[in-house]
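Protocol step 4 of 6: structure prediction from sequence.
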Amino acid sequence: MLRFYRAVVVVAIGAFCLRCVVAHAIEISKKGGKIDWSVGAIQETDASCGDFLFRNSKPGAMYSLLVKGGKSEICSFQEQGLVFHMPNDFGPTLTGKQTLFSFSHIGNDVYVAWVKPYD
């Protein structure tokens, strides 16, 4: 099942006002899997963690992935040519809880932050 969301943000910077579409959220139905960030900067899955293979992330962009799976597992993330930096407290997700991951793509590095747990 796919879920689509559309959000519009207006940002004022000095005399400039930027209006842009932030994201479409896509639901992924399997454990781990491929994430194509060109489809949307906010994505979610009902599956548990596993190995996520990213595609089409862009330097300077930020992305979010909500993992809603029921099992306690460790997520791993990779994209060709990029180095992922995990937070010091990184570990498995919690059984029955949702976990929100945020990714900041800067140069050839991706910095990962996470918030756990959500009910």
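Step 5 (inspection) to follow. Residues 1-23 have pLDDT under 50 and may be disordered.
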